[in-house]
Amino acid sequence: MESSFGSVLNSTTAAAPASRASLAEAIVRRKTRWGEWLVERGIFIVSLSAILMIFLIFIFVGREAVPVALGQTNNARSQKAVAAADIPKLSPEKLAAYLGVTLADLKGFDAATVKQLVELKGQELQEISNPDANLNTTGWGMMLLPCRWHGYDKAEYIWQPVSEIPKFNMVPLIIGSLKATLVALLLSIPLGVGAAIYVSQLAKPAVRELVKPTIEMLAGIPSVVLGFFGLIVLASMLQAVFGYESRLNAFVAGVALGLTVIPIIFTISEDALSSVPKAYIHAALALGASPWKTAWQVVLPAAVPGVFAACVLGFGRAIGETMVVLMASGNASIVSASIFDSCRTLTASIAAELAEVVFGGHHYRILFLLGALLFAVTFLTNILGDVVVHRLKLKLEGKH
Amino acid sequence: MPLRRKGIDWQSLIFTGATGLMTFSVVAMVALILGNIAWNGAAQMSLHFIIGGTKEGMFDTAQAGVFPMIFGTLALVVLMTLCVLPIGVITAIYLSEYARSTHAVTRVIRGAINNLAGVPSIVFGLFGLGFFVQFVGGGIDKIFCGGELTYGKPALIWAAATMAVLTLPVVIVATEEALRAVPQGLREGSMALGATKLETIRKVVLPQATPGIITGAILAVGRGAGEVAPIMFTGAAYYLAHLPAHLSDQFMNLGYHVFVLSTQSPDIERTKPILFGTVLVLLVLTFLLNSAGVIVRAKIRARARHAHG
User: Fold this and answer.
1) B288 phi and psi angles, rounded to 5 deg
2) Does B132 contact A at CB distance below 8 Å?
3) Most A CBs within 10 Å: which of B4, B26, B131, as the mutation test of the A interface?
4) Hey, are the CB atoms on A232 and B275 less than 8 Å from each other?
5) Strand-pair partners of A147
């Protein structure tokens, strides 16, 4: 992550060598070599692979989610019973769908069999006791709005994909993701930005040489290890300190998640702060400002877009992180405002449930829909972050 | 009048102290995590743990081993590197040697690379399942295997392919940086001697940039060895009695094993030592790779600064 940012920041420096290279090219120009031309075309085509991959991710994650997103799915288990007398009024297609048989089968039945099947179906429908079976729980309304389920006294948001009546309301998951992300950002923004200011403006070079590799090391710790640390060590430690009830909750997950976000926020902020021209700093110091005043009132305001981009990208990383929240959040899909309650995030739901779903079923498609949602959110935050960093770079280099 | 000498500058002291404290607490947290894991994990280390299998009992402290997971992880990253390195290096060559930085196509390619680096790892898992396992694997089964289920299921090759997509930005960025660090004068010299652009790249630029390309590969391997979410549905197995022998086999993996041990264990207190041991092995593996990558990269950066004056 931080390294890809480096490339954005460096990309503007390429212009000068390229023009020199084209001059050199002009001098040594000679007859076209077709073999080389072909290889160079090949290089160009391969270099488009990153675009192709983004495109494929978009297509293949979206493809599975499309029927649900367009409202073409229906998991209502019962329809209105059809009286035997009404059989001739129905088209064969509708009748086949109603009985759950294929059109070819239906044509093979004689009238008496069809009548018997319709009566049986009618009885079957009467036997379903739960009135919620009539609901199509895969529609957008049911996925986003609260619903008063049979046996509940008020409308609630419920994610319960494996039950007699599967309930696919995403709101608990979105709230869970936002809760864990909020805790993570509240921890990592002050620490990351504070450390970036200290390391880039105030600290001695020796401190810098110690801190930067340490944070690179933190970035190199696999997220499953941080999830493990949150689950086994941090959870007990924090519970002893804060004394809350459920051992695994949004707070523990958020703290562990913060550890994965700190390197991103630190690296990008530090990059932005360090690229503020030295002339600004020298001018401020010459006017009698102390180093901290220079850092706070001159360098930080100049680099604010970069710090903002760091926070945006940190958000994108936190909301997309899987293993940490899967292991440390407790995974109960509760809607509550307290960060000390267990929470279930979008990513953790996908990870925990995808292995057990029927391929191509409703639940499967809804999990892909959640994935598409995550992809869209991180796509937007990435673009926003990129644009902000790019503009800042141009501004600080004086090329508006 | 002499310059007025101020007393203690409290604001300065507080501000510097606060930011310093934040820096210190981040460093302290890293030290705490690593120290805790090293301390607890070291107790479990033994030759049997490293080279032993899981046949005698996955959850038994005295008998469990992690060799199948180490083997699976290494097989995964080797295959991944074979997939990602050619594509990543060629893309980097295009970006550094051919692309004009202001051109629209170049900006779109860079945008795609940055975006790819930010896609959540679980989305890669979904993509791997939807694209590699079902579309590509299912297609191979239909065409070559006569409909028999061989490649259309989670497999080592699909996990490696998914991981290759995930690590593509790492390889591209590191390689491009290395290519840019090659002094422009070398290219001009080569061309002045009559070499074509492609000959220059192949015989002058690439040999100079080899350490950087290796760095990219090492960093990608470090990343690939630790990621779990993308391989959960594309090939990693909870438990296997045999090592994977074929590309279409499933495999065990260190990171996934950490997840399994910490969430599926029947008695977490009893399996804790194995868990810490496995985490330590995973950390040592990724850190060795990462620090090797970081050191080589720092040297390249120093050379780049030197080359560009």
Assistant:
1) -60, -45
2) no
3) B26
4) yes
5) A156
Residue B65 identity (one-letter amino acid): G
The answer to whether A223 contacts chain B (CB < 8 Å) is: yes
Contact assessment for residue A180 and residue A325, using Cβ atoms and an 8 Å cutoff: yes
Which residues make Cβ contacts (< 8 Å) with residue B69, sequence separation at least 6?
B252, B253, B254, B256, B257, B278
Q: What is the pLDDT along chain B (309 residues), one digit of tens a residue?
A: 455 556 777 888 888 899 999 999 999 999 999 999 999 998 888 887 887 776 656 666 667 788 889 999 999 999 999 999 999 999 999 999 999 888 889 989 998 999 999 899 999 999 999 999 999 998 998 888 777 788 888 999 999 999 999 999 999 999 998 899 899 999 999 999 988 889 999 999 998 888 888 888 888 998 999 899 999 999 888 888 788 888 888 999 999 999 998 888 777 888 888 889 999 999 998 888 887 877 877 787 777 777 654
Residues 212-251 of B with CB under 8 A from A: 219, 222, 225-229, 232-233
Q: Locate tokens 């930080």: which residue?
A: A300
Please report how many Cα atoms fall inside a 13 Å half-sphere around the Cα of residue A361, on the Cβ side. Answer: 14
Q: Which two tokens stand for residue A331?
A: 């995974």
The whole-angstrom separation of Cα A78 and Cα A351 is 31
Total length of chain A: 400
DSSP B94-105: IIIII--TTSHH
C-alpha span between B246 and A292 (Å, rounded): 61
Contacts of B116 in chain A (CB under 8 A): 50, 53-54
Please count the CA atoms within 13 angstroms of the CA of B202 that sit on its side-chain side: 9
Residue B256 with chain A: CB contacts under 8 Å: 224
DSSP structure class, residue A147? B
Distance of CA B115 to the CA centre of its chain: 17
Reading the block at residue A133, the tokens are 């079976």
Closest Cβ–Cβ partner in A44, A228, A291 for B94: A44
**Three-class DSSP category at B242:** coil
Asked if residues B123 and A58 have their Cβ atoms less than 8 Å apart, the reply is no
Q: What angle do CA B294, B295, B301 make, to 5 degrees?
A: 85
Please choose, from the candidates B242, B219, B265, the residue with its C-alpha nearest in 3D space to the C-alpha of residue B59: B265
Q: Does B95 touch chain A (CB under 8 A)?
A: yes
Which residue from B180, B304, B209 is spatially nearest to A7, judged by alpha carbons?
B180
Under an 8 A CB cutoff, do A36 and B198 touch? yes
Size of interface A-B (CB pairs under 8 A): 314
How far apart, in whole angstroms, are the C-alpha atoms of residue A330 and residue A248? Answer: 5
DSSP conformation class of A168: E
Tokens found for residue B287: 């850190």
Separation in Å, CA of A133 to nearest CA in chain B: 30
Can you tell me the ipTM of this complex? 0.89
